């Protein structure tokens, strides 16, 4: 599983991936229950949008470098859920608050589209666990994160 994550890090978010993500997001409904984790589907949509807010520095974590990146990678390899960076946890109250479900889905799709159009040399924000990352690593993490949470709700 983690090997495929590494391969995705070298990819770009292309039109086919965008279309697939948008179709999966469009299929989400408020009554969907998670296969794992504590977030409801609306919280998950806002959590995923927060990922992109983090990448471009709109939303900052409350602490950096406090979690060992190897611990996060180990959790991912074993299929376990990694903790959200402090200030991003929906259950803990740090994430962006859900408003209207369909509107929040559109906001997520807008962030994904904007992210996909960023130039190769875009100066991304520092990740709270992984530090400085280039575009390829941010794209890989975005693909992994979106897949993880859409699969959480069978989308």
TrEMBL record:
Which Pfam families does the entry mention? Answer: DinB_2
Q: Where is the signal peptide?
A: none
Instruction: List residues traversing the bilayer.
Output: none
InterPro entries documented for this protein:
DinB-like (IPR024775), DinB/YfiT-like (IPR034660)
Q: Which residues form the DinB-like domain?
A: 15-152
Domain of life here? Answer: Bacteria
- Location of the region described as Disordered in the Swiss-Prot/TrEMBL record: 78-97
Q: What is this protein called?
A: DinB family protein
């Amino acid at each position: 599983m983690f090997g495929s994550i590494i391969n995705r890090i070298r990819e770009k978010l292309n039109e086919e991936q965008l279309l697939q993500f948008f179709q999966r997001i469009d299929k989400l409904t408020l009554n969907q229950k998670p296969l794992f984790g504590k977030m409801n589907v609306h919280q998950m949509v806002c959590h995923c949008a927060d990922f992109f807010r983090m990448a471009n520095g709109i939303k900052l974590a409350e602490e950096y470098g406090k979690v060992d990146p190897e611990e996060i990678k180990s959790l991912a390899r074993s299929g376990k859920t990694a903790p959200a960076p402090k200030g991003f946890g929906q259950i803990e109250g740090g994430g962006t608050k859900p408003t209207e479900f369909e509107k929040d889905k559109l906001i997520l799709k807008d962030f994904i589209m904007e992210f996909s159009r960023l130039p190769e040399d875009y100066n991304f924000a520092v990740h709270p666990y992984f530090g400085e990352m280039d575009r390829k690593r941010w794209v890989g993490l975005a693909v992994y994160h979106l897949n993880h949470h859409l699969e959480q709700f069978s989308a």
